[in-house]
C-alpha cells in the first residue's frame, strides 16, 4: 500500500449536477480539489457561473485545456463527435 495521502478531485462542468455534488462534498471533504475542462467554446455565462461557485464555496478551480481545442477535433472527425454509434452507422451505410 502507498503512504501517499488520499486525494479527492471533482470535475465541474458548470451544470447543475456537478454543482450540487460540489456543494455536498465541500461540506464533507475539506481537502477537495476542483477542475474544469475548458474547451474554449464555452458561453461567457459558464465562466461567470464558475466564478460564482468559487466565490460561494471559497474554493479554487483549476482550469484545464488541451493544446488543441474542440474545433480541431470536430474538424478531424468530419464535423461529427466521435462516438461508437456514429462510426457504426457510417460503417453499415445507414
What is the number of helical segments per DSSP (H or I, 4+ residues)? 4
Residue stretches low in confidence (pLDDT < 50, at least 5 long) are: none
H/E series = EHEHEHH
Rounded to an integer in angstroms, the radius of gyration calculated over CA atoms is: 18 Å
Structural class: alpha/beta
Overall shape: it is globular
Strand content: 15-25%
Strand order of the largest sheet: 1-2-3
Largest beta-sheet characterization? 3 strands, parallel
Average residue pLDDT: 85
Helix coverage percent of residues?
40-55%
Total number of beta strands = 3
Distance between the termini: 51 Å
InterPro entries: PAPS_reduct_dom, Rossmann-like_a/b/a_fold
GO molecular function: catalytic activity
Protein name: Phosphoadenosine phosphosulphate reductase domain-containing protein
Pfam family, one: PAPS_reduct
Description:
The chain has 94 residues and is α/β, with parallel strands linked by helices. It is built from four helices and three strands; from the N terminus they run βαβαβαα. The protein has helices at residues 16-28, 44-57, 70-76, 84-92; strands spanning 8-12, 32-37, 61-64. The chain has a three-stranded parallel sheet, with helices on one face. Strand 1, helix 1 and strand 2 (32-37) form a beta-alpha-beta unit.
Amino acid at each position: 500500500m502507498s503512504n501517499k495521502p488520499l486525494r479527492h478531485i471533482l470535475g465541474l462542468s458548470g451544470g447543475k449536477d456537478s454543482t450540487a455534488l460540489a456543494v455536498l462534498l465541500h461540506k464533507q471533504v475539506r481537502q477537495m480539489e476542483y477542475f474544469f475542462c475548458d474547451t474554449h467554446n464555452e458561453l461567457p455565462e459558464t465562466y461567470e457561473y464558475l466564478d460564482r461557485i468559487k466565490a460561494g464555496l471559497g474554493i479554487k478551480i483549476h482550469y484545464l485545456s488541451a493544446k488543441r481545442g474542440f474545433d480541431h477535433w470536430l474538424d478531424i472527425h468530419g464535423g461529427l463527435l466521435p462516438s461508437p454509434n456514429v462510426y457504426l452507422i457510417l460503417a453499415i451505410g445507414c
